[in-house]
Specification:
By secondary structure, the protein is of the alpha/beta class. 49% of the residues lie in helices and 12% in strands. It folds into four domains: 187 residues, Rossmann fold (3-Layer(aba) Sandwich); 96 residues; 169 residues, 3-Layer(aba) Sandwich (Rossmann fold), CATH 3.40.50; 149 residues, PCRA, domain 4, CATH 1.10.486. α2 packs across α3 and α15 runs antiparallel to α29. It is an enzyme of class 5 (isomerase).
């Protein structure tokens, strides 16, 4: 038993820093579920769990699999474990689901009918393939969407998302027809709407999409998990081989796993019987991208011998904030019951402020932010967190008018920015001009900057490539095109081949040469817009990053796996973000605008309980003070306060709105006092 084992000296400080419940959880073996409420130290507990297995039970770090959802979380975990155990005792299998699954698939790519050195297509690449496939279909043969027109951007995105969902559910192209027909029958028998024409179209699209990936020796994000998981399900020897590699499997944010991720984890833990999962069903907010909270909630039933620990002591927020959060989430009948508490003082009640119009709301929030800054609160200690991205515009205008520095978190990630994607495509073409893996890059860059190549010319190149079994880059110089286009493309391909043959250059130098020689940088220099200047800055940063990689494929894989990560937190800026983006963050002061029935939970909301969990997440971001606001009127019509406001106990909130229709509308004398104080300060 663990309790009878002497605690090694290196482990004692780690365990001594834990609460009793955190310590019991970290030291537990077997199937373990740690239900970690917001701000209760889940990362600290998970780190201690890894340290306990290495120091107390002698597990080899290289045989511990530790998985997170984001690169940022993986880096934080790696640092914490390194601080405790030293850099050489950090598990080598520590990373995101996609990064670790990619590593498994690269070891045996044949399970996905791929060859060694396959490429990884990110979400934007996948969307481009789907877009190209749909545009080959006459519009009259496309299913008519519920919103928009056949073949428009929304339909293309929807089709790509459905292919991704099929892969998350481990449905291959071969199995897709039966799966979709079963889905249609179930929904029809339950008298539920089902877009059967679109789903049946997706079945055929999925097969063509997968054929293109296979032809290019490429895998998308869904493939990285689907094929190894299916191989473990259907090949006992493959399963035994991989499951035997790990003495423990540990997972963070378990409430957010989809079917493929859940099965991948449980299959890899089968031999050891060691599965340590940390999560919180009250913070499950990603069902729209495939997460299934039921996997966490059913954990004790799936594994009858499992041990469950509840972390309920919150180290972040004051008592008023926690009482309000507990009250709101208590209306979720399916949750695993827990109640957050704190040893901190009660703090300030939740402010609830009503306004007539969104412009008034934005102006009031802005002035209060200014007042708090004048009293010494740092800009980056304040955040405005909203339900929908579109709500940021009015707030931004108010902040700009007041000259308050701000940053929108969750803008386009670095590796998804246009110039960065273009530069990586040039590197791909330079490295593999004669391989089909470069075809997507050719389609992207053949006419950037313009070389006179239109859809008709590209179609001719596609036909030549198909007839001769060539890459598009190789076929371009053999295709009869207009003289101007032919000369331009000949020069483009020649540049790619010449730079590709250079030896002794670093990756950064090669990239610089490509951008200059192809005219790409000149194109950006000729554009005097702020956007072009930003793109040039992005390229300078990419060139610097490229210096840290020896091979093109390593940089491309890193970019594919890291794509979409949010920017770094601004040190001197108010933070603006959606509720989804705010998860995992904390701020001393949080403003929560637009808590109105029409917006939050919203009249069209498909998952009211997930909206409630979003309210819980938003409230628990606040450390010292939370302010909720709402309006009577927004563009699009009138509304009323969100039901979530009424669920906050009266003793935990102070309201500036009243229910008497005949009484004059006012925001609260406190806000008038704010105006006077700011005017006196000259703000």
């Amino acid at each position: 038993m663990t309790g009878n084992l002497p605690v090694p000296r290196a482990l004692a400080p780690v365990l001594d820093s834990l609460t009793p419940e955190q310590r019991r959880a970290a030291m537990a073996l077997g199937y373990v579920l740690v239900l970690a409420g917001a701000g209760t130290g889940k990362t600290k507990t998970l780190t201690a769990g890894v340290a306990t297995r290495v120091e107390l039970h002698g597990m080899v770090p290289g045989q511990i699999l530790c998985v997170t959802f984001t690169n940022k979380a993986a880096q934080e975990m790696r640092k914490r474990i390194g601080d405790v155990l030293g850099p050489y005792s950090v598990p080598t299998w520590l990373g995101t689901f996609h990064a670790l699954a990619a590593r498994q698939l690269r070891a045996e790519p044949e399970v996905a009918q791929l060859r060694s050195g396959f490429d990884i297509r990110d979400a934007e690449d996948s969307l481009a393939i789907v877009r190209r496939l749909i545009r080959t279909v006459p519009k009259e043969k496309l299913p008519v969407p519920q919103e928009g027109a056949p073949g428009d951007a929304r339909q293309i995105k929807k089709m790509a998302e459905r292919i991704a969902r099929l892969k998350e559910d481990l449905i291959t192209p071969v199995a897709a027809f039966a799966h979709v027909e079963s889905l249609i029958r179930r929904r029809q028998s339950a008298n539920l709407h089902v877009d059967h024409e679109s789903w049946r179209f997706v079945v055929g699209l999925y097969g063509r999409y997968q054929a293109i990936l296979r032809e290019q020796n490429a895998a998308d994000f869904g493939d990285l998990l689907m094929w190894p998981t299916l191989a473990m399900l259907h090949d006992a020897e493959y399963h035994r081989r991989w499951s035997a590699r790990f003495t423990a499997v540990m997972a963070d944010e378990f409430q957010d796993v989809n079917r493929a991720q859940y099965l991948w984890l449980t299959l890899l833990s089968r031999t050891s019987g060691e599965l340590f999962c940390v999560g919180d069903d009250s913070q499950s907010i990603y069902s729209w991208r495939g997460a299934k909270v039921g996997f966490l909630r059913n954990f004790p039933h799936e594994f009858p011998d499992a041990k469950m620990f509840k972390l309920e002591e919150n180290f972040r927020s004051t008592r008023h904030i926690l009482d309000a959060s507990n009250a709101v989430i208590s209306f979720d009948p399916s949750r695993i019951e827990k109640t957050l508490f704190t040893r901190r003082d009660e703090g300030l009640p939740i402010e609830v402020l009503g306004f007539s119009y969104a412009t008034e709301e934005a102006a009031a929030i802005t002035r209060e932010i200014g007042r708090r800054a004048a009293t010494g609160v740092a800009w980056h200690d304040m955040a405005i967190i909203y339900r929908q991205n579109r709500l940021s515009r009015t707030l931004e205008e108010a902040l700009l008018h007041a000259r308050i520095p701000y940053e929108i978190i969750g803008d386009v990630g670095f590796y998804q920015r246009t110039a960065v994607k273009d530069a990586l495509a040039l590197l791909t073409l330079c490295a593999w001009p004669d391989e089909r893996r470069s075809d997507e890059a050719f389609r992207r860059m053949a006419n950037r900057p313009p070389r006179g190549l239109g859809a008709r010319g590209l179609g001719k190149i596609e036909m030549e490539a198909s007839a001769g079994g060539l890459s598009l880059c190789a076929a371009a110089t053999r295709t009869r095109l207009s003289p101007r286009c032919a000369v331009a493309l000949q020069g483009f391909v020649q540049i790619l081949r010449q730079i590709g043959c250079r030896e002794g250059e670093s990756l950064g130098e090669r990239l610089t040469g490509l951008l200059e020689a192809t005219g790409y940088l000149d194109m950006l220099r000729a554009d005097d817009s702020d956007e072009a200047a930003t793109q040039r800055e992005n390229l300078a940063e990419l060139i610097e990053l490229a210096q840290g990689f020896r091979r093109v494929e390593h940089l491309l894989e890193h970019a594919a796996l890291a794509g979409g990560a949010p920017g770094e937190k601004g040190r001197d800026r108010v933070q603006l973000m959606t509720m989804h983006r705010s998860k995992g963050l904390e701020f001393r002061h949080v403003f929560l605008p637009a808590w109105e029935e029409a917006i939050f939970p919203g009249a069209m909301s498909r998952n009211s309980e997930e909206e409630r969990r979003l309210a819980y997440v938003a409230l628990t971001r606040a450390m010292e003070q939370a302010t909720i606001t709402f309006c009577d009127y927004r563009p699009g019509g009138s509304s009323r306060p969100s039901r979530f406001i009424d669920e906050i106990p009266l003793e935990n909130r102070v309201s500036s709105w009243n229910h008497g229709r005949n009484e004059p509308r006012q925001s609260d004398g406190r806000w008038r006092q704010v105006d006077q104080e700011l005017n006196a300060l000259g703000l």
